[in-house]
Each structure stands twice: as structure tokens, then as C-alpha cells.
Amino acid sequence: MKKIFLTVLAAASLSLLSACGDDPEPTMVEKCANGLSKDCLVGTWNLQAIKTLDLSSVHIDFGTTPSTIEFTKDGKFTFTCTSNTTESEMAGRGCAGQSSFGTWEIAGANLNIKIDISRCGEPVEGSYTVTPTINDTYMDFHGLLFHVNDMTDSLTNKNATEYYIRAAN
């Protein structure tokens, strides 16, 4: 009887343990439900376009040859400039394919970016703060940072934003 009891107890224990498996990984929609967060930001983003601040029109379309920015979990990033020398003034001045490196941190609604190494000098090394709108699909910086020197017309520059889309995993 003791042997049967122990067998039943062992089987019950195993079934309870298997029922307590790991929770499934949250979806990107769930990770981004509250906007800017580490879980939402980490990954690779493609600069789709430089758009007007209200997102109603496009100044430069990078759809086929985007610049990319990769945010890693350890608070580092790599930005790589587009190779599109036709659309990008920066790429045409020798920045094509060049990368900048640095660190990032989130402070409330702000994304603080510190550029430690700028292979192209655009933007210059230093600290910058953006307040992006971000979700599972896109990120809007509400201004220019990495492509500030692509919009040399000062009026256009002040009314433009970098518009990124999340790269497919």
C-alpha cells in the first residue's frame, strides 16, 4: 500500500511541476503597450524615411537602403549610415556604410543617447536626448539626430523627424 501511495504521490508531483512551466514570452505588442521601455526598444530599427514632423509627407525615402540602429540589452547601440548616396547627403559625403557607437538609457519618456565613436562625425560625439513615440512597429524621434546633416535647409531641418520601422527578426 505504501508503494502505491508513493507512486501516486510522485505522479501527482510531476503533473503539478509540468503545469507550472515558464510563462510564454510576451509579444512585441505587449512589450510596447506602455510606450518607451527597454523591452520595446531593444532590437534593430530601419530608418524608413525622414518625414515632416506631422508624418504627413516624406522628405527622404530610405525604404530600400535604410540606415539602421541596433539597441542591445546591455545599453549599447550601433548606428550604420545608409549606402544610398543618391538620397542621402551624408552618404554622399563619405558616411555611406559608416557606423557610430555608444550607449543609451531610458529616463521616463526620454531616450538618452551618448555617441562615443562617430566614424563619420555626423552627428558629433556627445550626449543627446530624444522623446520618441514608439510601439511594436515604428519609432518616431520627433526630430533629427543621426541624419541631422541630411537636411541642410534649416527650415526643413526644424520640421523633420527620423521615422524608423522595426526590422524583421
Task: Output the structural class.
Answer: alpha+beta
% residues in beta strands: 25-35%
Helix amount: 10-25%
Sheet having the most strands: 10 strands, antiparallel
Q: What average pLDDT do the residues reach?
A: 86
How many DSSP E strands? 10
> Which residues sit in consecutive blocks of at least 5 with pLDDT less than 50?
none
Termini separation comes to 55 Å
Helical run tally: 5
What string gives the helices and strands in order? HHHEEEEHEEEEEHE
Oligomer: single chain
What is the overall silhouette? globular
Radius of gyration: 23 Å
Task: Tell me what the structure shows.
- There is one protein chain.
- With 169 residues, the protein is α+β, with helices and mostly antiparallel strands.
- Helix content is 22%, strand content 34%.
- Strands 1, 2, 3, 4, 5, 6, 7, 8, 9 and 10 form a 10-stranded antiparallel beta sheet that branches.
- Strand 5 and strand 6 (110-118) form a beta hairpin.
- It is globular, with a radius of gyration of 23 Å.
- The model has no long low-confidence stretch (mean pLDDT 86).
Features:
5 helices; 169 residues; single chain; 22% helix; alpha+beta
What's the quick description here?
By secondary structure, the protein is an alpha+beta fold. Helix content is 22%, strand content 34%. Strands 1, 2, 3, 4, 5, 6, 7, 8, 9 and 10 form a ten-stranded antiparallel sheet that branches.
